[in-house]
Amino acid sequence: MTEWAAFVGLTCAVLSGFLLLARLSQGAVGDAAAQSRDGSADERPVITDHSGVPAEDGSIASTDDGSVAPPDDGAAASTEGSDATPASADGRRADGYGHEPRVDAPQHGERPAHRQLREMGQEGPAMTPGLLLVNVVLTQGLFGTVLAAGAWYFRVPPSALGIGGGTVTGVSALAVGVGFGLVLWVGNELASGIADAAGADYDEGLRRLLAPEGVRGWALLLGVTLPLIALIEEFLFRAAAVGVPAAGFETSPWALAVVSSVAFALGHGAQGRAGIAVTGALGFALAGGFVLTGSLLVVVVAHYLVNALEFLAHEWAGLPDPVWS
Fold this sequence. Notes:
Order of helices and strands: HEEHHHHHHHH
Radius of gyration: 25 Å
Shape: globular
Helix content: 55-70%
Number of strands: 2
Strand order of the largest sheet: 1-2
């Protein structure tokens, strides 16, 4: 009994660290997501004057005295005595100090969201997609390693963690997980549509930031990052937070499912208030699946499918959110 209590204490410590890190990183992720969301609709180059301030419509630059220079056609030059800024040798207009305006054009093959992150770098450091992926892999891996080591050290039975026991195992568990994941994905799309129709703050900026651009990026996301997220989060929020206390202390697994789902929702605060509510409902559904099947594999597969289908449908295929809107 002492070992069970020690593992539950370790689970609480890991869960607290998970939520604290999510809270600390929420500001940086939220700022980057807001930048990507605000800039995703406009692909035009932004021309700035020598002070680094963008022109009003993103295509013209202002002069030192506040007047507006005409659009750059590569041929016009200022007339004698006018306030217009002179054109440089290559046709771009210069300011009164002889500096040419800076053109922040998208790089070849660059997504609008990632261009916004690059532009943020002009002002200071930003949370880039690559850094987000590295942060996820390292932190999730660390939490999972600590928890797995604790389960081994305190000799927690694998069956309490949903490993090797339950009502479904092996290929059956895999098949149930696939079906469960498809149902949850449809439910997630419905919840997203309801939140959007109600005008609720449901922010998918983090998903857009993590969306890769090339084959290697998608392979890393689908083959490493998303499976790791699904495995670690299910191991923490379902197996350790629900399965072990229910087995070791004869606590109601459904009460534990509610508590763990609240924690799961708070760990996804970057998605906005509506996103927290939707994630909490998803977490409770996953917890219910774990309680009913007693299988960690079922909920890991389902969790992975929900995340993977969201990325594939909205970021790869470019379908609206929800897909039927």
